[in-house]
Amino acid sequence: MGAPLGEKVSKPGRVLSDPQQAGNLERSLTESTAILGYSVYEPWKKWLIVALTSLAAMFSPLSSNVYFPAIPVIATAFSTSIERINITVTVYMLLQGLSPAVWSGLADSRLCGRRPVYLACLALLALSCVGLAFTPVDAYWLLVLLRCFQAAGCASVIAISSGTIMDIAAPGERGIFLGVSSLGAMFGSCIGPVIGGVLAGRYGWRAIFYFLLAASALCFLLELLFLPETLRAIVGDGSLPAPRWNRPLLPVLGQAWREGMHDGKSSELPRRTGPLDFVKLFTHIDVCLILWTNAVSFTMFYCIQTTLSPLFLAAYPSLTETEIGLCYLASGAGCIVGAPLSGRLLDISWAREEARVKREGGHVRKEHARLSSSPIYWGLNTAVLAAYGWCVRFGVSVGVTLLLQFFATCMTMCIFTVSQTLLMDLFPGRGSAVGAANNIVRCLLGAVVISVIDFVRLAIGPGWTFTALSVWCVLTYPLVLLEWRYGTHWAAKRKST
Q1: Which of 24, 128, 235, 458 is deepest in the core (most CB within 10 A)?
Q2: pTM above 0.85, yes or no
């Protein structure tokens, strides 16, 4: 893809041959860049685009977690064991990790773009929900197959939303936008069990898929009407018109070119992409470090979510199923606080770095600007995990355990926002590929750990289980420090080859 902001360019799509000249221009661009100059979208339009992408991203974890409370009911309806129904959860997680590998290449391609992939994913999700709602109870194989299609449809939107933010947001404002965008994904995982429990308990398991059908269809309609194409290889900074077939029906957010704002800027030259474009990212050591540390943090979140119900039933037997479902809202509150808070702090840190560059010269230290707050996030997360496990073990007040759950989720969101923002800074123009790589690592690691966490919990108890998880975090954090120390060197070496 052509050079976005901060890359070595003289004109859109033209690479400078003189490294010294390119470096000077890069520093000049970084210092003089105004946030509003990165794209033609006004702030309120950017926020609405972020809101639309966040809404779409919510369906991946929502479709997964809303299903959990209905597993016993579905097992009874299909006259099979819970273990066999759990296979539908396993295949969902596998497709959740693998499907973005295909969609992300299309989303980064000039021949397709972001908007068609959003619509295709939501349409596939809605159609799979129709099939699931009408699946005969003697067709277990169809249930498994349709769950695969459901995951393939909804899981990829999270990865694509990262690319959308990279299209419209300059580095100095990406933190807050990414933090808010990730709210949808995380909040969906928290409210899913509550919604699923209510629907399955009152109206039966098919009601879950009717709900997902209605919600995904509404989201599809909103994207169809309002979401503009943002891929910079197609629309440049937003001032160029997308092909007619790739425009919103109501161009409220994508009408800059209609208003005479097109000033002749050419779109960035497209970079060759493919369905396995994200695989190339794993050849870079700094990317592997960031992806692994982020996946470890997210695995901690998965462990809390999947063990909450059995742990709370054992520790607090007076709680009803509905009350336990409501306990998931503590994690939702952690998402709401952690994502925008860390995003705002990232933007402040970036502005501080740019101010230093203006005073002292040099260039923005991306790793320093993004990772400077990581010791606080990792330190609190490690301490909270161990405390949470022992509080549940000894049946400490449910309010205390929910507070610890809130802080654990809050810190997880902070770590995720830091990691994702740094990856977007390191690989401009490859937002969807970055999101796909991030998604596959955390989903596959989470699937492996979740498959054994219950056995570990039953063997050594919740106290030692979460202590072991906190030790894992302690052993992982030096990898963050390694990226902080040597990341700039690795990035410079990558650009020179």
Answers
A1: 235
A2: no
